[in-house]
Every structure is written in C-alpha cells, then in structure tokens.
Design brief:
This protein is α/β, with parallel strands linked by helices. About 45% of the residues lie in helices and about 25% in strands. A five-stranded parallel β-sheet has the order 3-2-1-4-5, with helices on both faces. Helix 1 packs across helix 2 and helix 3 packs parallel to helix 5. It is globular, with a radius of gyration of 15 Å.
Length: about 140
C-alpha cells in the first residue's frame, strides 16, 4: 500500500470548504503526514475589473482574508499535532493546485455539485485537477450552491 506522508489541502476560504479542511487534517493525523494548505487567489475572476488600482485593492483584501483563513487552519493543525505549511498563490486554481502538488502524495479538495449551464460555463476545478495531477486526488462533495 502506498504511503501518504505529504498531504496538500486546497481551500478557497469559504464556509463550505470547512469539511475539506476537517477531512484533510483528520487524514493527515491518522497517517502521521505533514500538510501543505493552499489558498489560490483566482486572478481569472478579477480579469473583468477595469483599472489596475482596483484589482490591486481587491487582491489585497482577498490575500488578507486568505492569511486569516490559513492562520485559523494552522491553529487547528497545531492542536492536532500536525506539521503545516501555508501557501497563498495567484492564478488559475486548477493549474496552481496541480503545480503545487508535484512534491505531494495526495491532494484533498472540494467539489461543488453544480449542473447544467453553470457547470458547462465554468467547468470544474476538481475535474481539471483530477485529469492533470500526478498524485491521487481525494474529492470532498460540498453543499450545492
């Protein structure tokens, strides 16, 4: 059986992803694995915002919130005795998750259960990660949006 010593947990900071964090940290504790928690600032979703100053301000607010989210997760990991690395990256979430997981043993992430036109127009970050990741991916179903 393959050993999982390094777990990467991807989060967007939403309340829905709390279950992803919980499951990822629980798995890491059971396996005695270290965790890298990753927050990706989706710069593609900001591309429609005009002036650079506005984008910089919005990104700054998102990054500050990301720091708060990751600090909270770090506290949970410390309470569980888990070694944790925090990372905030900017870009396309699926591409960043895949590239950041190259030295990891398993990815833990959430998946929104969208369907129909919403899914067709936005695609699925989880599906793109599953197709492109070099390591296994554990997908946690999130509440429907």
């Amino acid at each position: 059986m393959e050993e999982y010593e390094r777990v990467i947990i991807a989060t967007d900071g939403s309340e829905e992803t709390e279950i992803v964090i919980e499951k990822g940290l629980s798995m890491a504790r059971l396996l005695g694995a270290s965790v890298k928690v990753l927050f990706v600032v989706d710069t593609g979703s900001l591309s429609g915002i005009p002036p650079d100053e506005v984008i910089t301000t919005v990104e700054g607010h998102i990054e500050a919130e990301a720091e708060n989210v990751l600090d909270d997760i770090e506290g949970k990991a410390e309470n569980m005795g888990i070694e944790l690395e925090k990372s905030i990256k900017k870009g396309a979430p699926s591409e960043i998750i895949v590239s950041e997981s190259e030295d990891q043993d398993i990815i833990v992430m959430g998946h929104h259960t969208r369907s129909g036109l919403s899914r067709l127009l936005t695609g699925s970050t989880a599906q793109r990660v599953i197709r492109n990741a070099e390591c296994p991916v554990m997908v946690v179903r999130l509440e429907e949006e």
